[in-house]
Amino acid sequence: MSHAASQTHATATQTTPHRLLYFFVAFVLLMFFGLIYAWSLFVDPLEAEFGWDRSATSVVFTLSIITFCAGMLVAGALEERTSPRTVMLITAACLGLGLIASAFTESLPFIYATYGVLVGAGVGLGTDVVMSVTLKWFPDKQGLASGAMLMGFGGGTMLLSPVVTTMLGALGWRMTFGALGAVFVVLVGAGAFIMKLPTPEYVRPLLEKARQNATVAAVDMTGSQMVRTPTFWVFMVYLMLVTCGGLALISQAVPAAMELLMGAGAGAGASGAAAAGAGASAALSEAEALMLATAAMGSVSAMNGLGRLINGFIWDKFGYRVCLTWIAVAFAAGMLCCAFAMMGGNFPLLVAGFMLLGLMYGGNMCSMSAMVGTFFGPKYYGINYAIATCQMIPAAIVGPQILALSQMGSGSYLGAFWVFFGVAIAALAVSFFIKPPKAA
Predict the structure, then answer these.
(1) Other CB atoms closer than 10 Å to residue 196's CB: what's the count?
(2) Fold of 18-213
(3) Per residue, what are the HEC states of 301-339?
(4) Tell me, what DSSP letter sits at residue 39?
(5) pLDDT, position 271
(6) Residue 399: phi, psi to the nearest 5?
(7) What are the residue ranges spanned by the domains of the chain?
(8) What is the C-alpha separation between 71 and 115, in angstroms, rounded?
(9) What broad class describes the main subcellular location of this protein (predicted)?
């Protein structure tokens, strides 16, 4: 081994514990940020107290996703002008204020502003800065590092939802919001003093190796350069189609499962529903049904996290084409399972559909991150990833509303599942037109 190679090896060896430490901190923070997807746990308590309808409460989730994307854009810009620590302290302030203020909700505009705007923006700020800083430590493993970190974001709902459900039962929704706000202030504030960027000396040899292996773009593109490539826009269409279905399910997972468990699934006649198990489900108490529905949502979260890890491995090992294909196929299969489950009152089949949809949504989010780093280079990852995340805005507007309006209009989510099956087929078709950008 040459002297230069020995130095490089020594540097990597000395720094490796630090990069794993930053990964661990990022994973924990992203796991808590993933609680933004647990909004459906608060839907029933708020609707019961204030008499709001499902379409109105769905707007809270939609707003949180829109401001999540806006927060990421702001974080991408701030990172270039300030420091990761500053952005994370702003994140702690937004999340603490937003959650604690949500505890004082008395009207829809108030919860729109507190949870929808402040919490959504805080999660966006934190997610972007944590992802951007940590991935700079892993220029040689963009796909796997993205997937592993995002597994925390996706799996947070599964791991923490039972805790939140218990808190809701013991403390009520107001105290739960307040307690979560305090936890976020402490956790994100501590992370702000741990996370830091790697040195150029550490990054350089890893980045050179990645570029030699063609696992990272040979040229780093700025945001303005990225948005001028056909690759970016075709990929954005694909992401929007898949995200639309994923966010729809996540926003309404608990109510959709409750519909089936309480024997309200449309499409199954009285005798057919009883034969399929819906009649038996109706014997459940509301508390028992809620626990099962929460567990069903947890399966979405578990597969959401696992899908991110699996897709990161597939992206690095087999390339983007295989990733995009299996995501679209899982999307279509998941919607079919959900539709047939509603028609037959079959709860295990609904859970299977939820799991497939969790896998595809998690894989989709990982693909977005891996695409930014692999196709357009890691240098401008923060702002480029934030730009790509904006595809969630139209998806968050359209997806949950289709599901909510379907439920309000027909009393069932069945019709929306068939609509999203068509969306999945469209995503599969679009995937064949995606290819890496040509070097300038």
Answers:
(1) 13
(2) Growth Hormone; Chain: A; (1.20.1250)
(3) HHHHHHHHHHHHHHHHHHCHHHHHHHHHHHHHHHHHHHH
(4) G
(5) 34
(6) -60, -60
(7) 18-213, 223-264+285-433
(8) 14
(9) membrane
Which of 66, 43, 41, 70 lies closest to 56 in space, CA to CA? 43
Distance from C-alpha of 290 to C-alpha of 57, rounded to nearest angstrom: 18
pLDDT digits (tens, 9 = 90+) for 30-60: 989 988 767 878 988 999 999 998 788 888 9
Type of residue at 40: S
What is the identity of the amino acid at 173? W
CA 73/CA 68 separation, integer angstroms = 9
Q: What is the pLDDT of residues 155-175, one digit of tens each?
A: 677 778 888 889 998 999 999
Contacts of 245 (CB under 8 A, 6+ apart): 331, 335, 357, 360, 361, 399, 420, 423, 424
Q: Percentage helix, strand, coil, to 5, in the chain?
A: 85, 0, 15
CA 406 centroid distance within chain? 23
List the structure tokens of 307.
């899908």
Distance CA 3, CA 8 (A): 9
Please tell me the total number of residues recorded for the chain in this structure.
440
Are 18-213 and 223-264+285-433 equal in CATH topology? yes
